[in-house]
Design a protein that fits this description.
The protein is an alpha/beta fold and 247 residues long. It contains nine helices and nine strands. The chain binds adenosine-5'-triphosphate.
Length: 247
Amino acid sequence: MSEFVIAVSELTRRFGAMTALASVTLSLPRGSVYGLVGANGAGKTTLIKHILGLLRAQEGSVRIFGYDPVADPVAVLSRVGYLSEENDIPGWMRIEELIRYSRAFYPAWDDAYAEELRKMFALDPMAKVKSLSKGQKARAGLLIALAHRPELLVLDEPSSGLDPIVRRDILGAVIRSVAEEGRTVLFSSHLLEEVEQVADHVTMISGGRIVVSAPLNEIKESHRAGERLPTLDEIFIAHAAGAAPEG
Ligand code: ATP
């Protein structure tokens, strides 16, 4: 078995003349919470799409649990929980149908846990997905992402546009996933104070390149200005401005 849950090596992706990812190398060990941060258009979703096998590496390689996610999608996706910002679950399904439909894809689906999440998220089994609010849809997406107790949970901008209660549910889910031994979380977010609350490790991406990737406490220490540790927001803004603050 691979030592790393995610092993991305020298990954480059171009869309026409535009380089969305430039020689990205990233390895996630089991049991860690990785925050992926970067400005709009930095390349976060493009990286996540490669991890899920939705895009094929043009240059470099991507291995998830040691498998190529494009060549072996079942081996990879049956062990991954995924929630995206778009959260494109079929609108015509009722919650109970969505649960029945989703469980067929995951051998490790846990009915009791799915029901526990449904109750916790106050989702009416008879409600149609298209009638749900954005926050309820996010909860339904999160239920599907978590109920098979994935080894890897990937959250792409899970909090954007959501109220504090739904965000708390999502953060809680992240923490719970990690608490269950050996689970790994990769989540991208623009809400850096949330990243600070839950991430062990932060990877900052800018213009398709990784500019910082280290344990959160190391990043903060290395950007310390005198007595006070900077916030992740301050570190991010300094990097976005083209220069890291004096360390
Ligand atoms: P955001 O925070 O706004 O979601 P992001 O960091 O997720 O941004 P990506 O969606 O990965 O950024 O986009 C990286 C760059 O690649 C952007 O310039 C985007 O316009 C471009 N891009 C992404 N997908 C495509 C595509 N299918 N065709 C052309 N360009 C694309």
